[in-house]
Each structure stands twice: as C-alpha cells, then as structure tokens.
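Internal ticket #5521
Category: modeling
Description: The requester needs a full-assembly model to guide mutagenesis choices. All entity lines are attached below as received. Residue total reported by intake: 383.
Assigned to: D.W.
Attached entities:
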Amino acid sequence: MTDAVYVYGIVSADTAPPRDHAGIGDPPAKVQTLKSGDVAALVSPIDARTPLGRKEDLLAHQRLLDAVAADGPVLPLTFGAALTDPDAVVGELLEPNRDDFVRALDELRGRAEYMVTARYVQEAVLGEVLDEHPELAELRDSIAGRPEELTHQDRIRLGEGINAAVSAKREHDTRALADVVRPHVVQAVVREPAHELDAARIAVLAEVDAEEKLTGSLAQVARDWHGRAEIRVRGPLAPYDFVTTVR
Amino acid sequence: MTTAVQPQGGGGGMVDRPSSSSLADVLDTILDKGLVIDAYVRVSLVGIELLTIDARVVVASVDTYLRFAEAVGRLNIEQDKESLPELVGDLNEGGAQHKSKGAVKGALDAAGEKARDALGGDDRERHRERRSRKED
C-alpha cells in the first residue's frame, strides 16, 4: 500500500537518483526524482500508516542524501517529510519555491559538509585533569578506601569537578580545532557535545576540491593530540548544518 | 566518494575516515537539521507518526558525574599496574630469576588481582561501566 510521497531533499533537475541507494521502507523503496524546471525532489512512495523511525529508515535517509551530495549540491530535508502525491510535490513544494531552491543550490555547487569530531581518550584526559587539579586528585584518594554507600555525595562532587574541568578543555580544544580548519572551509558551525568525552564537534562547509587541505590540517592536530584524543572526519555529506528555512 | 578508510586504532595520530554514517551519527543530524518541510508546504502535508527517538545523551548529569568519578577511581588502579614491573623485578631477584615467561605473567596477574582487591569490587564496577557506556 503506497499512499504518500516521502521527500528526501531538493536537487538540480539534471541530478540522477543514485542507483545503488534504496530509500526508506520495508522493503526499501526505489528513489526517483520529480522535476519542475531547474529543480527536482528526491522522492519515494511510502505507506502513510506505517510509523517512521526504524534504524534502517534513518540510515537510508542520510546515506541517500550523502551519496547525492558527493556528486552535486543537495538541500536535505529533515527526516519524516511526506506529501499526499507527486502532484503536490511539484505544485506545492517545487514550483512556489523554485527560485529560492535554485539560488541555494547554486551557492552550494562544488561544496559539501564535513563533520569533524574529536573524542578524548578517557584515561589520558582524566590523567590531565588530575594533574592540573590536585584538589580533585585528593578527593579521589579520599574516596578510594571508603565503602561505596558512604561516598555517594563525594563521588558526585568529584564527578562534577571533573566534568567542569573536561568542559573547559572541550571549549579550549574546540576553539583550537576550529582555528585550524577555518582557513580551509567556507563556513564552520560548532555542534553541542553529544557525549561526555567529546573534545570537539564542528560541522564545516568546504569546497570539495579543498578536502585534502582540510584533512591535511587535521592530520597535523591528530599527531599533536595522539594518545589524548582521536579525530574523525566524515564527508562529503549533505549540508545539514548549512541550509536553513527562512520564513 | 573520495573517502579513504584509515586503519582503525592503528598507527599514531591518524585522522579516522569512516566510509559511512553510523546510527549515532544519523540521529543528531537528520532529526533536527536540514529544511523543515512544513515551512514550505501546508495543504498536502501528510502527518506520519514518528517513532519516539531520543538518543541524545545528557552530558552534564548526575549519571555523568558518577561515571567520571568511577573512571578516575579505575585510573588509580591503572597507575598501580604501571608500577608492577618493579614488583615483578623484585620477585625475580628473590630467586626466581630464570623462570619462564609464564611464571612472570602469573606473578603479574596475582599482583594485579591484589591491587584490585585492595581497592574493592573492581569486577562489579567494570560491569557497570560496560552497561552504562554509550553507543558511539
């Protein structure tokens, strides 16, 4: 039963739907494009009565958009967008907003998002914190010999102190990493930490041709931080952090 | 894609280039970033139920604090382990000089256990750590 059209994103009309990436649904639906002038929507049919959000659906949505972004500009839609039928996609989404979409796609040509993340190596960063904060090391030692049920408050106090120290490090390291990538990117956005050991999470919009310069600059930091933090770069990705809806 | 996958965890100071996104990567990207369709479309919007997805970790919480406290407690044990070779050296001098590697390893293990015993309940702590560790 297919009674709605799921929309992944907006592309230029000459973009072919990626053949090796299926869409959401079980079994995964075939992805097509619906065109209107210079723009097109990446879509696939879905059953509107089946709730969305299975792991496979989430991965399919992002992997499809990222695959498209590797070859050309795409405006990603937030997960879960569906319209009643193909005519609605063309008549209500593409036609009224065509100029807007064309302008945004032009701006993104040759560019893609890269997600730069750094994660602390726990033992190393905690060692740094204890070295820099003798009072936390003392508190830790005072807890060590005592039974767990008597140290609950102290352990919270200790953890709170460590968290504050790690947060300060994160702020410092995020700024340092942003300074390193900035010369090689068009824009950079700092994302909130998603894990207590995150050292930095920076989404960057970069020229795809400058990718090697970007990763080269990060490799230098990776060497400097070897043993204390691990650096990861994902991309090219669809520009999730750099397209916004202006109402 | 121009992605080159580097060996995971190998070598010094490499930048990791995973070839595709994991679920954790996806969750904080496509659920609250990108264009929101109802800013463009009203009439023909289909409201599809979204399964409850909330994988966001609260970074500063009592849970975090207790995990950190536990982790620095374990750090203490790690540091004790680092000083163990000295202890093993002493044992060797005390007459066991030319024993096989196995014996030295045995001494190491025994001493390691002792260090854990002294600090109490390491197995239980380790179990809890595994349970509370977040998916990456």
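Resolution: model delivered.
Comment from assignee: The longest strand of chain A covers residues 111-120.
Ticket closed.
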